[in-house]
Amino acid sequence: MIPRLLRNPETSMKKTLFVFCLLSTAAAFGQYGIGAGVVNNQAQSYQFQSSPGHAGYVPMSAEKNILPSTTFFSAQGDRRPSDFAQPEAMPLGTIARELKRQHAELKKSRVVWINQ
Fold this sequence. Notes:
- The chain is mainly alpha-helical and 116 residues long.
- Helices cover 36% and strands 0% of the residues.
- The protein has helices spanning 9-36, 92-105.
- It is flat, with a radius of gyration of 39 Å.
């Protein structure tokens, strides 16, 4: 059931390489004949539509309030970090003991593989 081309690995590789080179050459000549030989190599300049009205100088208009009419209070300045509630800092030793306890409670494997 093996095709004739694949019976001998040396000749099948040579034939495959030859077919690949033939197809690559045909593709290269096809590209050259279709578009590359006809393309004009002159530089093309693009003309953009101008809008002189967008960049004109006009006086600034009056200020407009876009917020709804509500009472709004604003303050400026900095507040010390001690003014805000801080979470209680947990010591690193307590965190390590908790992680060790959680690790000990995890399900252990019944099989241990040793690769040698």
